[in-house]
Design goal:
435 residues; alpha+beta; six-stranded mixed barrel
Length: 435
Amino acid sequence: MNTLRISFRNLSRQKKRSFLLGGAIAFGILIITLVNSFTAGFVENVQENFSHFFAGHVFLTGYEKSPSGRLITVIREDDVLIEAIESLENLPLQYLSRRSSLEGTLIFEGESIRQEVVGVNWQEEGFLSERLILREGSMEQVLVDPRALVLNEKMAARLNVEIGDTLLVQLQTVTGQQNVGEFILAATSVDTGFFSAVSAYAHRSHVNRLLNISEDEYISLGLFLKDMLLMEREAQALSGALEEKLSLVPRFSGPRGFQEQRNQLLEEQWEGTRYQLFTIGDFLKPLNQIASTLNTVGLVVVLILFVIIMVGVTNTFRMIIYERTREIGTMRSLGLQRGGVRGLFLLEALLLSLGGALAGLIAAFLVALILSLINFGTDNQFFIILKNGHLFFKILPAQIAGNIAVIGVLTLLAALIPASRAAKLDPAHALRKTY
């Protein structure tokens, strides 16, 4: 306790010097904490927004193979799937979504665009109508007309189409035949940039007719969980429950893995229906690489800053030891051993780094709080990285502890050489020191 009090006293004797060094350490901790928390929040936000967009965290889809070798994507009967889902104990399920989708060409008065249209059951997916931000039209119009289409405003502008206009759609059915149908534009949604090409919705029953499948069939079954962090655990549990009852294809990794798996299904010979289980995380694994790259860049920048700070710590402690040579001689003459002298200076360095780290964390929390209060809105092209229109910083205690440990070790290493030299001072020589 005496050593601790002396260390605090010595740091307070040179307030300006301690403040500058501690402030530099605080700035480094501020930067790395903001980078780490932003990238963690970025990954979680994108996954959560994609989950809402695709209406699920865990997905199941079925495949059949036609006599000609064509891959047919459809779920005709889902009794076994629903039974397996219901068999999972304590499944944090919020809702199920059954969707179909077509990729075709929308045509209006000579203009055309390539567009994916998602077929939804509006009665079952009331959450979707709540989340959709409409620019023109209304959900009442969408619900009334079975051919109603909700189209992104950017795509509607490219077609020069207005509410109430009839659009033609050219597409292929699930079995590969060419088909033509109609949609009535009932509403336009706010442009979301990244999702412009896939943010179109229609009644599933009408999409099914165009795809030439029955009204109660669909393409993808989505499970939206109450907690996204549990999706991998629940996906594994569901996979285990299904493996004994039907044929599951292996999990894929990343968007390219999905296409490679489809190609493999085309090459293999099989009969019946095979099912594929995947999570939103399987599609978004490249996000983890982006987050890792951002964290690495942030760490490199901060390490360079810390190296500069450590040079300052070393030079500062050399000056401190020079100024306190007679004090060191007095302590040694009173019985303080070399290890005690070394420990005293290292403790001062450690307290300096911890104080700076604490100040940096407080500053990071305040900056993150202020930035998270800014409402950027949900009708902009950056909504995918936002949480309800706000920046989201996810604090990871393990990363914070690791960063503090790194700065503590670096500070101790920077102060070790000056502290060791102080410990080796001869007491008699130190007492005779004059300035």
